[in-house]
Amino acid sequence: MVFQLGSALLDACVLAVLDKEDTYGYILTQNVKEVVDISESTMYPVLRRLQKEECLSTYDQPFSGRNRRYYAITDKGKDKLCLYRDDWSEYKLKIEKIMMGGINNE
C-alpha cells in the first residue's frame, strides 16, 4: 500500500483485531500485516502505549515450556475503538467522495 498509516489508524487496527479475540504479539502483527507492512519492532511500542493508556491488558499463558504474553482489549479500549470506527466511517466517505470526483469547486 502506498498510503502511510498514521498512529491513530494503527491503534484502531490493533484494537479491532483484539476486539475479536485475545492474542499474542506475533499473531497480532501478522493480522495487522494483512493491511499494512509493519514489523514486530514497530508493533511492540504501539502495544506498550495502548497498555499505558489502559486500552489493553496483558496476561501470560504457558506454551512449550515458556510463557507467551497475550493482549486483551479493555472496556476503555472498546470505547476508544468505537470512536475510531465512527471517525473512520466519516473519513472513508470523505476520501471516497474526493477520489471518485464527487467534490466540485464552487
Automatic annotation (TrEMBL):
It holds the Pfam family PadR. Residues 14-81 form the Transcription regulator PadR N-terminal domain. Signal peptide: none annotated. It comes from the Bacteria. InterPro entries: Metal_resp_DNA-bind_regulator, Tscrpt_reg_PadR_N, WH-like_DNA-bd_sf, WH_DNA-bd_sf. This is PadR family transcriptional regulator, regulatory protein PadR. It comes from [Clostridium] fimetarium.
